[in-house]
Amino acid sequence: MFNLIPTLKAAAVAAALALAPAALDTGARAAEGGPGSGHDVIRIPDTKFTFDGIFGTFDRASVQRGFQVYKEVCSACHSLRQLSYRHLTGIGLTPSQVAAISSQFQVQDGPNDNGEMFERPARPSDRFRRPFANDAAARAANNGALPPDLSVMVKAREGGADYMHALLVGYEEPPPGVTVMEGMHYNKYFPGHQIAMAPPLNTDGQVTYADGTTATVDQMATDIASFLAWAAEPELEQRRAMGVRMIVFLTILGGLVYAVKRKIWSNLHGE
Fold this sequence. Notes:
With about 270 residues, the protein is mainly α. It has helices at about 5-25, 60-70, 95-100, 135-140, 155, 160-170, 215-230, 235-270, and strands at about 30, 40-45, 105-110, 120, 185, 195. The protein has a domain at about 30-85 and about 130-235: Orthogonal Bundle (Cytochrome Bc1 Complex, Chain D, domain 2), CATH 1.10.760.10. The radius of gyration is 24 Å and the shape is globular.
């Protein structure tokens, strides 16, 4: 019986790790760096995504719309190099739909029999095509700024998807007395409030959703944040489900171990 203790400890640690990120899904978080002084605190709104919390799941329709926003808007500057096109089956697309999407892009391959590199239509097994050939080309096209890869951006930024949504809707005119440097834009949720990226979502209807959803700026920001949250952690739902199953298993096992312990010690006491 006592040999079960290390097993129980290991299982408990595994369950805690499986559910830990969900426990950190808080609502509003702070973005620091106020106008001028850099000390003001602006609360990041809680968008209340469907995947928040231990039992949260991705809204597949929203994630698919987010992919459309990425494809039509964000992919012009930002890469998504940790994903392959085949991963899009995880958001509810069929293999034929994924094949059709991947074939729209040209990727470099080779060398061929002549030792030359060539371009071909992308396959589902290929990684998402980069918008620029290299970082130098990306900087040259963006006034020296390097657009970051978005594969794990939601995990890399404090506030996660809430921050990504807030950033996209946080562009506005600077308050009186605040001077924005040349080539920069004022964003009330960005640390320091001056960001090189121009507002990517700047007007309602910028994207025509395939499912007929009205594409307001807030809706597009919500959808792209949902897609990037999925891209950063596509196994989120499976991991959480495993954690819940382990908690249930540990609860039942703990009860059985306690019952056995009571039985053994009651016999010893009777002797």
